[in-house]
């Protein structure tokens, strides 16, 4: 059976505009919290293919989206490169020995070995391909090299990125060495996800907005494009989604380029501007402000506004970033139904 989501990525005719939601498995679903409690902690859940497959499927069954996004975490990559990772309640992910010099970079495990250690992710994908309905697409993903590097250098989440930026401006080649090493791991990692059975690749750059527009290509976008080029050469039938968050100025300047299929538009970027700059070349995905999900009226208003701009022309409905944990499930269901309603007009 045809996957509407995959067809939409390639701008093929579909009966309606498909919809999915970033960070589908999460604290807004009580069913997810039960499975997470069963796993003991977040990292255990990522490492357990049976449980990870279960929470991947939950949003399809409960909310009714058209594609499942693989349950995992972007930080399993540096973890398997040899960096010790803990998820601390109230603090988030912590690398106790962040990268500070070239010796730390040289000590990281190489690309193929690190990618081979991520077997639990590939086993999750294989289980999902056995369990998912044939018409539902499975989206695999990775963090972009820049976003991964921020955690590896800062040691945790940050609001200032001062250690990364200090390296960017005072030791740019050191930062590039980290980015190149992570890029090679990501290439193999995504290739193995494809071979395990994913239908679509998405590359997230969650912290793209931390880089000034004039430096964004040098320290992030070009590495994302390199990954896309590598995958497209080998797997042209697999759609690739690029999602850099907070780069409206980069888009407006006409600096987006590369061999990929879908561009994720974050909620801070005007959809009309994105369509003007990118709509002729890429299918657009997005871009509802996630907090609109607190109100069904605000949700409907935004969905209708996006549909009016895009008119089904190369568009996939999605949130402009991840769903928040206290959103009522019935409001998430309402979002999906409204997307499907307006796109059938």
Give a written overview of the molecule:
- The protein has 345 residues and is α/β, with parallel strands linked by helices.
- Helix 2 (30-39) packs antiparallel against helix 4 (49-62) and helix 11 (172-196) packs parallel to helix 12.
- The chain is globular.
- It is built from 16 helices and 9 strands.
- The chain has a 7-stranded parallel beta sheet with strand order 1-4-5-6-7-8-9.
Q: Roughly what percent helix? A: 40-55%
Question: Biggest β-sheet, characterized?
Answer: 7 strands, parallel
Annotation field: number of helices: 16
Q: State the distance separating the first and last CA atoms.
A: 24 Å
Overall mean pLDDT:
95
| Computed structural class | alpha/beta
Rg value = 19 Å
Strand residue content = 5-15%
Q: Widest sheet: strand order?
A: 1-4-5-6-7-8-9
Number of strands: 9
N-to-C SSE string, H for helix and E for strand: HHHHEHEEHHHEHHHEHEHEHEHEH
Low-confidence stretches: none
């Amino acid at each position: 059976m045809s996957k509407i989501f995959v067809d939409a990525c390639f701008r093929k005719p579909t009966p309606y505009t498909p919809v999915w939601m970033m960070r589908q498995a999460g604290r807004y679903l009580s069913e997810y919290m039960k499975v997470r409690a069963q796993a003991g902690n977040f990292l255990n859940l990522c490492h357990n293919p049976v449980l990870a497959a279960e929470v991947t499927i939950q949003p399809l069954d409960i909310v009714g989206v058209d594609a499942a996004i693989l349950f995992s975490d972007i930080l399993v990559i540096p973890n398997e490169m040899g960096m010790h990772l803990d998820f601390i309640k109230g603090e988030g992910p912590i690398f106790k020995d962040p990268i500070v010099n070239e010796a730390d970079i040289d000590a990281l495990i190489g690309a193929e070995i690190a990618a081979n250690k991520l077997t639990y992710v590939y086993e999750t994908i294989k289980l999902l391909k056995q369990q998912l309905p044939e018409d539902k697409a499975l989206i695999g993903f990775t963090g972009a090299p820049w976003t991964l590097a921020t955690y590896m250098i800062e040691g945790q989440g940050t609001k200032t990125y001062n250690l990364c930026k200090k390296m960017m401006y005072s030791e740019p080649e050191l930062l590039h060495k980290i980015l190149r090493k992570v890029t090679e791991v990501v290439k193999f990692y995504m290739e193995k996800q494809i071979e395990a059975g994913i239908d679509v690749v998405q590359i997230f750059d969650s912290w793209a907005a931390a880089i000034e527009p004039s430096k964004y290509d040098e320290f992030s976008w070009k590495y994302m494009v390199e990954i896309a080029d590598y995958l497209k050469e080998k797997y042209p039938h697999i759609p690739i989604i690029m999602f850099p968050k907070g780069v409206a100025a980069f888009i407006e300047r006409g600096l987006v380029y590369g061999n990929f299929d879908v561009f994720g538009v974050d909620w801070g970027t005007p959809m009309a501007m994105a369509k003007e700059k990118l709509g002729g070349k890429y299918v657009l995905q997005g871009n509802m402000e996630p907090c609109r999900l607190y109100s069904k009226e605000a949700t409907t208003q935004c969905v209708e506004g996006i549909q009016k701009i895009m008119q089904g022309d190369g568009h996939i409905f999605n949130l402009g970033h991840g769903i928040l944990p206290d959103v009522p499930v019935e409001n998430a269901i309402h979002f999906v139904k409204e997307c499907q309603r307006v796109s059938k007009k």
